Each structure stands twice: as C-alpha cells, then as structure tokens.
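Example record

One chain of 266 residues, shown exactly as stored in the release files.
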Amino acid sequence: MAFSRNATGTLFVGGALSLTLVALAYPSMLGVSTTSSSPTRVIAQTQWGPLTESDRDFVVKVRAAGLWEYPVGQLGLKKGQSKAVIIASKHLIDGHAALDASCRKIGPMLNIAIPDVASPQQQGFVSTLTADTGAKFDTDFANILRVTHGSIFNTIAKIRSTTKNTLVRILADQANATVLDHITVMEQTGLVDFDQVLFQETTPPKLPASDLTPPPAAPGQPQVVLTPPVNSTTQPPVLPGEASGQNGNGQNGTGQNGTVPSPTAG
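Predicted structure tokens for this chain:
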C-alpha cells in the first residue's frame, strides 16, 4: 500500500505509519473473513426467526472483536499516557465485556460455535500495541481502534436492517451503541488522523482468509470469559426467555438460568 511522504509523516506522533500496521489494517469485518457462499441463505429455523449465514458470521465477528479489544483496553490502562486514552480503555473493557456476555448466551441459543481466540490479524493488532511505548502507544491505539470500529459500523447497520432473527437484531442494537461509543472516545483523544483512517477504511490491503478468521474453539477447553469491571456501567440486554434481573453470567436473583430449545438446522 503506497503512502505519500506527507501522509505517512502525519499519521503518528513522531513518525510514519509502520508497514506492520498498514498490513494489519484490514478491518472491514473486524478480522473475520467473509466466508459465506450466500450470506442470505437460511441455515437454521429458530423460534426467534430464520438464521442466515450473515447472521451467524455477525455473532462470530462480535465475539472475535472482544477477544482482542478487551486485552487492548487492559493494555491502555497500563500504558496509556493521556487521560483520554485511559478513559477510552475503560470504555473498551466495559463495552466488550457486555457484548461478550451477549455472545456467550446467543451463541448456544442459535447453535453457533463462537471462537475463544482472535484471528491472526487481530492478534497482530495486540502485538503491535504491546510493543509500543510512550506517546506512540497512545497514537497507534487511537488510530487502529478508530479504523476498526469505523469499518464495522456499516456492517452492523446492514445486519440490523436485514436480519429476521430477533436475537441477532438485539445483538446488533447493542453492538451499534457500543461501537458508536468507542468511535467517539477514540476521536476524543485528539490523536485520530482522519485522512489516514478513512484511507485505510476504504482501501484495505488484501490478506489471506487464514489471517482474517479466528480459529475454532478447542474442544474440552474452558470457554474464555471477558470479565466485566467492578465498576461496570454497561449491562447486556435482556434476551427473550430471561428474567429481567439476569446478569451477564446468565443468572438472575433467584439463581435460575433461562432455558431455551435449540434451533433446528436447515
């Protein structure tokens, strides 16, 4: 991907956009390859409405996003140099913990296998930020996350406007609010280079599908849970069949778990 001298010189404080970051910045699906042969094909009939390939992929994408953005939020709390980056990090952790709780409930309800590890590309984002120090961490943090959230925003809108599945619609509503919040706090850092962010959103490099797809969860291993912070201000929405008092762990005040029948594969 070619950049002008001026463009690369202004992307990050004190230097140009690294080639590694450019290669990683293909976030149109937040690191999940579009593998559907027919996104509108119904793959299951459920009591919450038909489930399409794109519906299934969306649930996987939301789960995969949290698997790298949550640890990046933890990095931001430790390495962030500015108050705005610290605030943005808290929003990442809080928002993705709530989305994770929804995905872990919706996945089994719709018979969707959700991953426990982010895609290689997404793990690359984490590696880049893990290696960063000082002001470069703050700038890379704000720009990487603004690119990825800006790109998935359109995908959420499409799913929300087309899905016939109630659970997917609820998740899309939650993801829309969370992603908009994260876009906002990244911009409030004052570090976003909008010219480069928009360029990367609209001109992504081509990466192999293996880099963009999270591996399947390992059989028999405990499921990864993104624990909400003690002072969490974000709660997952109540799903059909749940008591209004249920928390992110799927338990209500009486300790009863909501039970729902499995969908019929089509």
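Notes: Confidence is low (pLDDT under 50) at residues 1-35, 248-266.
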